[in-house]
Design brief:
Elements: E1 7-18, E2 22-23, E3 29-30, E4 38-41, H1 43-57, H2 74-84, H3 96-109, H4 111-116, E5 117-120, E6 128-131, E7 134-136, E8 139-144, E9 148-154, E10 165-183, H5 185-192, H6 196-208, E11 220-231, H7 240-244, E12 247-251, E13 262-266, E14 274-278
Antiparallel strand pairs: 1-10, 1-11, 2-3, 4-8, 5-6, 7-10, 8-10, 9-10, 11-14, 12-13
Length: 280
C-alpha cells in the first residue's frame, strides 16, 4: 500500500581528504561554484549511492531490483517487462493500455523506478514515463571548499623504461555538505505505489550509503545527520522550506576541519500535524 504521509528530510554528510563528486569537465576536480567557492554534490551522485546500497542489501528480494545499473541496457529490461506480461514486443505502435501495464510492472519490480521515477519511453517496447515521489536537491557545502591537487607517484611501470609515472589526486581536506529532499505521498498513491516499507528502506540506504562506497578517491565520507519531518496529511501540513529552516548549521571557525567545528541548532517546535525524527 502506498504511503499516506508526506515526508521532508535533511541530510548532512562530510568528506575528509577526498573527492565526493568529481567534475569530468574540470579534470575530475571536486565540483564547486566558481562564484562563491562552495562545493556541491549532484542529486544523481546521491541517488547512485542509494541505488548501490539497495542493490547490495536487498539482492534477490522481489520488488527491489535496480533498473539503473551497469550490466544490461535499459531497452532490454523494457522488453523483459513486455515478455513477463505476455504483451506483443518489437516494432509497431503500442497501445496506451500496454504501456501502462508495462509501467506498472516496472514500478512494482524496480525500487529505483518506484522511488525516483524514470523515463522509459525509449526503444521498441516503451514503458512510459514515471515521476518519482522521492526528489533530492544538490548537496551544497556549508563553507567554501579548498580543493588541493596532491601529486602521487606510481612505483610500478607499465613499460620497461624505468621511469616512474607521476599523477595527481584532487581532494578536499574537509567539507560538510547539506542536501534536502521530499517524499510526495500523492505521487506515490497515483503512480508508483511507493510504500512505508520502501520509505524505511530509503532511510536505511541514506544512513548507510557511504559504508559500502569506500574508495581511495573519496577518502573518508560519513553520514552525520538525517532529520525526517513527517506530515499527517498526504499533501503536507506546512511548507517544506519553512521546515528546512528549522535545521540550522553554522561554522564555529573560519576554516572548519571536523564535524565538531559546526554548531547545529534545531528548532524542535513543530507546526500542527508535523513531527520531527532524528534518524542519527
Amino acid at each position: 500500500m502506498a504511503i499516506k504521509n508526506k515526508y521532508d528530510f535533511v541530510l548532512l554528510f562530510d568528506v575528509e581528504n577526498g573527492n565526493p563528486n568529481g567534475d569530468p569537465d574540470a579534470g575530475n576536480a571536486p565540483r564547486m561554484d566558481p562564484e562563491t567557492g562552495y562545493g556541491f554534490v549532484t542529486d544523481v551522485c546521491l541517488k547512485r549511492k542509494i541505488r548501490n546500497y539497495v542493490a547490495l542489501a536487498k539482492e534477490g528480494e522481489p520488488g527491489y531490483n535496480i533498473l539503473v545499473k551497469e550490466g544490461k541496457a535499459l531497452n532490454t529490461r523494457f522488453t523483459e517487462a513486455y515478455q513477463a506480461l505476455e504483451l506483443p514486443t518489437g516494432k509497431g505502435k503500442k497501445t496506451p493500455e500496454d504501456i501502462q501495464k508495462a509501467r506498472d510492472y516496472m514500478c512494482q519490480n524496480y525500487f529505483d523506478v518506484r522511488t525516483f521515477g524514470m523515463v522509459m519511453s525509449t526503444g521498441d517496447n516503451p514503458c512510459g514515463i514515471v515521476r518519482g515521489p522521492v526528489q533530492l536537491t544538490f548537496a551544497q557545502s556549508l563553507s567554501p571548499i579548498r580543493p588541493q591537487d596532491v601529486t602521487i607517484t606510481r612505483q610500478v611501470d607499465t613499460k620497461e623504461d624505468n621511469n616512474h609515472t607521476m599523477g595527481r589526486k584532487s581532494i578536499i581536506p574537509y567539507a560538510l555538505y547539506r542536501a534536502e529532499g521530499s517524499v510526495s505521498a500523492m505521487q506515490a498513491q497515483k503512480i508508483t505505489g511507493f510504500s512505508e516499507e520502501d520509505a524505511e528502506v530509503l532511510w536505511e540506504a541514506i544512513l548507510n550509503m557511504f559504508e559500502e562506497d569506500r574508495s581511495a578517491a573519496r577518502g573518508k565520507m560519513c553520514l552525520r545527520k538525517l532529520y525526517v519531518f513527517k506530515h499527517d496529511h498526504a499533501m503536507g501540513n506546512f511548507p517544506s522550506h519553512k521546515l528546512f529552516d528549522k535545521i540550522k548549521v553554522e561554522a564555529k571557525t573560519d576554516i572548519p576541519r571536523r564535524f565538531t567545528d559546526y554548531a547545529l541548532e534545531i528548532d524542535t517546535e513543530m507546526p500542527e500535524g508535523v513531527t520531527l525524527e532524528s534518524k542519527v
